Amino acid sequence: MTAITRTLIATPDRVPTTAKLFGYAFPQLFEPFVYNVAREMAPAYNGGYWLFYQLGNGGFYMAPDIEGRFEVSCAMNFFDGELSADALGIVACLTAYSHLSFRDDKEFAWTCGDQFYLLRDYADSHPEALAIFRAID
To answer: Per-residue confidence of the chain (137 residues) as pLDDT tens digits?
Structure first.
């Protein structure tokens, strides 16, 4: 199996990339949902700039541009642990994809479902894969 690569999306390309993937739903639904999930899971997270990544398999995720680690607590599955900012972003995006895949807007729901599996495949080879999967289980 070939490793899934990730590429940082340059600032000028962020809007066109997210518009192509999600349309209007990125700034209205997905992006705020991700920020709220991060805030709920990691009380020490208090906002900031996020990096956007395109995955070699067509996936997308975003993660806070912060050095260091976060204490994370997921009330839905009783996960308590520590995650890097990158892993927190992956968990927040996977959570958002999962929840938003049940929306009435079927095109957006299917996109979220597809993106969930693409990001999950990438997360499988992440250095923090075990913690990521425990956090989303």
So the answer is: 688 999 999 999 999 999 999 999 999 999 999 999 999 999 999 999 999 999 999 999 999 999 989 999 987 788 999 999 999 999 999 999 999 999 888 999 999 999 999 999 999 999 999 999 999 98
Domain boundary assignment for the chain:
25-136
- What is the third-level CATH fold of 25-136? Alpha-Beta Plaits (3.30.70)
Give buried/exposed letters for 91-108 (b at 16+ CB in 10 A, else e): bbbbbbbeebbeeeeeeb
